[in-house]
Amino acid sequence: MSLFIYLLAAVLLTALFIIFPKKKATRRFGIILVIVSVCLELFVFNFHSYHLFFGDYEETKLDLSEAREYNFNSERTDYVSNVGGGSRLEFIGLNKKIGTVRIDFDYLEGDVKGRLASYVDVKIDATDETHSAEYRMDVASAKAIRSNERSEYIILDLSGEVKDIRFKFSTAKTDVFQVKSITINSPKPMEFSSLRLLAIVGLAFALYALCTFPTLECETQKKKKTFVGAVAVTSGVFSLIAITLTILYNVNSGGHPFSSFALTKGNQITQGLVDAFRAGQVHLLEAPSEEFLALQNPYDWSIRLQEQIPYEWDHLLYEGKYYSYYGIAPVLLLFLPYNLLTGYYFPTPEAVLIFGIVGIVFLSLMFYEIIRRFFPKLPLGIAICSLVILQLSSGIMYCFCSPLFYEIAQASGFMFTMMGGYFLIRSGVIGKGRISKVSLCLSSLCLALAVLCRPTLALYCIVALIFMAFGFFKNLRSAREEKKSLLGSSAVYLVSALACFAIIGSIQMAYNYVRFGSILDFGIQYSLTINDFTKAQYHTDFVAIGFWNYLFAFPQVHPDFPFVFSNFSTLDVNGYYFVANTNAIGLFWRALPMFGYFGALSALKRLEKKKRIAAILTVLSACVIAPAIIIFSIWESGYGVRYSADFAVELILGGMMIIYLLALTHKESEQGVVMRFVRRFFVISLAVAFIANFALIYDYLNKSGNLAANYLNFERIFEFWR
User: Fold this and answer.
1) DSSP per-residue codes, 132-165
2) SS3 category, 549
């Protein structure tokens, strides 16, 4: 069946390349690509299927009743492993050449206590003619995956006849399985993967198209409809990826693709703050016990562990009451209204999904506005590559992989920041064109709401004030030219720009004051979490850990799926630094256009003198200073890859814009050569970004739940040598 589907996919791809491409070169490339992919499938991806072709191997089914067994259920004849511990089967005196071993497993439910095993780890000890007096330990190993027959075949590269062989099996402690039979020298069946074919052909042809298609060489301003379509398709694709990741999380952890929308319980954001606000208070309804409050220092994690008194994790404790540190914008805009309307609590994964998808769409819209207003002559291919790199490297995808209450704050903050950035660029406060007061007001509204999601994002409000300052003087010039009242025009502008900041900022400050008696106290130091923040001291070495891992950490390459791996490092710092996860490939490698910063001075020289100050103040503040301060501030919370959603887009955009400026300001006679080089650089950057970000996101997924076997089956498509 797999062969039929594979051949059908190959035929359809060939037909597509024959019918649709207008150019012979494109048609030829596509057909050759399919032929090469089919040859790879036949002779490379299935090379183990030819393992017995050269040698005198006799297929033999071993008699399990003659085996020496250990830790199997002796009351049964079908060799069901006991729950917990490893088990062994040993065959003495075989005296046969062995090229392959096929262990036929069954995974039982019902009358056997234990969980259905997702896989069984198998190790083999054996003697051969080069080492006959005792076993060579662990000469072979494999992972037999449930519902994957091909994974039950183990290739052996031994010399001469094997006298004795021992099979060692292990699973998780609560898993059970059955060894139905063991057969030696059974040919490993060929497997043809249509998914592998489509991945190879699709990715290779996409890169070819980006490098060669004439339409993609055209300026975006001359292909507006195509550019709009590309932005829409990119947003749609990444929204589908977000939905897929959410479904994977839900099925893996709970067995259903979507959460219940009739939840009677939630976390401190979806329920705790909702219940508190409904009760007319800002502290949570849960009350700490007297025993907990009597601790010598309840903020000290080690004391809490030692005393073993129950408490609410990651809540704020202040003057005997629990509070939540996390922003109230998601509560006021989604969770509280939903509870008031339905009486239920909104599910966290779906909330993160909604916030994240809106953020993805507005990231695309913001990028579109930047190109339309400031780089209209940029070739379409470079613009498309840039947008895909931004979406891949934005950091928001990590929130869908593990949507907890932390990710609610992260995703909602990302959403409002992208919305604020879009409306700010669209308002026209910098660049040519009239200023839109509506867009300006929407920008300040969204950026202010971002602070109500994550206080850290207040930095982008400060950046927005710099943009608005340029807009203020632009508005004055426009009023003079149109002979309008300078005072009236200025007043309207300032109200549009600052009213939402003032109103929403006042709400946040009042909320802070009611909780902690200070308008500037967000309360993080009172967290019952990883460390006692009331006594934590600043160390520059901790800051260096963040900068290294977020920006510079090199990727590692291994022959295991997904082949590219994190290279997280604490830089041998001596002291306690919290590490939520070790996913770390620096943005300079996840998004190669970041290297554009090394050409910043050259780009600045190419600008007209009157534009230099505006460029320095706006781009430097938004794309360098604010992200750098955010990375700096993370030292106290420790490393978590999801934090990159706060600054990755801004950092990457800055590097990209410098490259655009350098490329577009070359002499007209040099434009062709320069643009071809830059275009290929962005295509390579896209390929690297896809590989690196896919690897990190895949590694970040929890693969030990209901979908453990499915993930392993997926990995085996590409780990074809196993």
Assistant:
1) EEEEEEEEEEEEEETT-GGGGEEE----SEE--E
2) helix
3-state secondary structure of 477: helix
**167: which strand partners?**
89, 124
Q: What six digits make up the tokens of 357? A: 């998808």
pLDDT at 547: 96
The answer to whether residues 496 and 441 touch, using CB atoms and an 8 Å cutoff, is yes
Q: What is the DSSP string of 292-341?
A: HHTSS-TT-HHHHHHHT----TT-EEETTEEE--S-SHHIIIIIHHHHHH
CA distance 391 to 413: 16
127 phi and psi, to 5 degrees? Answer: -110, 145
C-alpha–C-alpha distance, residues 488 and 494, integer Å? 10
**In this structure, are residues 255 and 706 in contact, taking their beta carbons and an 8 Å threshold?**
yes
Phi, psi of 28 (to 5 degrees): -65, -45
Q: What percent of the chain has pLDDT over 90?
A: 78
Radius of gyration over alpha carbons of the chain, in Å? 30
Cα distance between residue 201 and residue 426, in whole Å? 39
| pTM listed for this prediction | 0.93
Angle at 606 between CA 673 and CA 652, to 5 degrees: 75
- Find out whether 177 and 107 touch, Cβ atoms under 8 Å: yes
Three-class SS of residue 189? coil
Strand partners, 149: none
Which pLDDT tens digit goes with each residue over 456-479? 999 999 999 999 999 999 999 888
Tally: H helices and E strands in the chain: 24, 17
Distance, CA of 334 to CA of 313 (rounded, Å): 24
Q: Convert the pLDDT of each residue in 69-87 to its tens digit.
A: 887 765 544 555 544 557 8
Residue 175 forms beta bridges with which residues?
A: 115
Beta strands at 115-116 and 175-176: parallel, antiparallel or unpaired: parallel
Report the chain's mean pLDDT, rounded to a whole number.
92
- Per-residue pLDDT of 651-688, as tens digits, reads 999 999 999 999 998 877 677 888 999 999 999 999 99
DSSP per residue, 471-538: HHHHHHHHHHHTT--HHHHHHHHHHHHHHHHHHHHHHHHHHHHHHHS-TT---GGGB-SSS-TTTPPP
Give the ranges where 165-223 is alpha helix by DSSP (H): 194-212
Q: Answer for the pair 406, 324: CB distance below 8 angstroms, yes or no.
A: no
In three-state secondary structure terms, 259 is: coil
